[in-house]
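Issue: copy button drops trailing tokens. Both records pasted manually instead:
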Amino acid sequence: MNTAGSGSRFPCQAIGDGLKHPGAISTGPFSKGLVMTETVLISVRLPGPIAEAANAAAVSRNISRSKLLRIAIERFIDDISGSSEQDRRRQFSSEYTFLALDLIVQREYPEVHTELLTEAERRMEAFHGGA
């Protein structure tokens, strides 16, 4: 479940974050007696089935429940902020499609290119409140 190199802006998804979990060989800061100073303790109450599912998922991935929940929260924040990997792919695909279509229209139908751009701008204003 390690997502290092995935572009996440959150540090706990990095390799070797020093979090202990059952069966892990500790090589991070905790093995040297250091404390984690960049985290804040937050207590959360979860319904039993969600807590059980979180425990099972953490055990199956050989990570701590805390790390599993941190990663889940980070991914949720990425998703709602529009910066998830899936959102970036969608944005890229959308831009690529627009550019390809624009190039085709410019070359094959130059007489309507400006009219199409003007209509697109008008629709942006009407449907989205601005261009």
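Record 2 (pasted manually too):
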Amino acid sequence: MSIPDTLAIDGGEPAVTIDEPEGWQRPVEAEKRAVLDLLEEGLSAALDAGSPSSSRNGFGSSPAPSTA
């Protein structure tokens, strides 16, 4: 394999060619629906679910299991 005089980016021959470009497209509509669903359910509740303060608030709220 020889090194070309001009790189493809500068107008030379590409080293790799693809006959069919990839047909994948970003699922924008699905992303919009997911965000709207979160907003409708209450985004702040979803965000607070994993916060340290929410676990701290629930700590000790149930009695310890009996060891007897």
